Amino acid sequence: MRRLFMIGMLCGVIITAAVTYVFAIPGNNNYWRSEIWKRGGAAWTADKDGHIGWEWRIQAVPDSPPKKPVVVPSSQTKVRAEQL
After folding, report:
1. Which residues share a beta bridge with 52?
2. Residue 66 vs residues 24, 61, 80, 81: alpha-carbon distances, Å
3. What's the pLDDT tens digit per position in 18-66?
4. Distance in angstroms (rounded) separating the CA atoms of residues 54 and 42
5. pLDDT of residue 65
6. Three-state SS across the chain?
7. Nearest to 57 by CA among 74, 84, 39, 72
8. Is residue 40 within 8 Å of 58, Cβ to Cβ?
9. CA triplet 23, 24, 29: central angle to 5 degrees?
């Protein structure tokens, strides 16, 4: 009985440590806070039906600079449209 209790306690400690490592440490890390801030900021939101979710407050800023628009040259051949 005592061994079963100790195994249960050990599993509880391991699960608690895993949850802390996965959720709490990145949430308190200044690197991730600065990344969220640089990309426009995000926040927890709740709609009128009570659904809770994570949402970007503005459009996220991409890592790469925007590409120049591509200009396609017009075709030199004449295209004739046939009316039906």
Report:
1. 46
2. 34, 10, 37, 37
3. 988 877 766 666 777 677 766 666 777 778 888 877 776 766 666 777 7
4. 7
5. 72
6. CHHHHHHHHHHHHHHHHHHHHHHHHHHCCHHHHHHHHHCCCEEEEECCCCCEEEEECCCCCCCCCCCCCCCCCCCCCCCCCCCC
7. 39
8. yes
9. 110
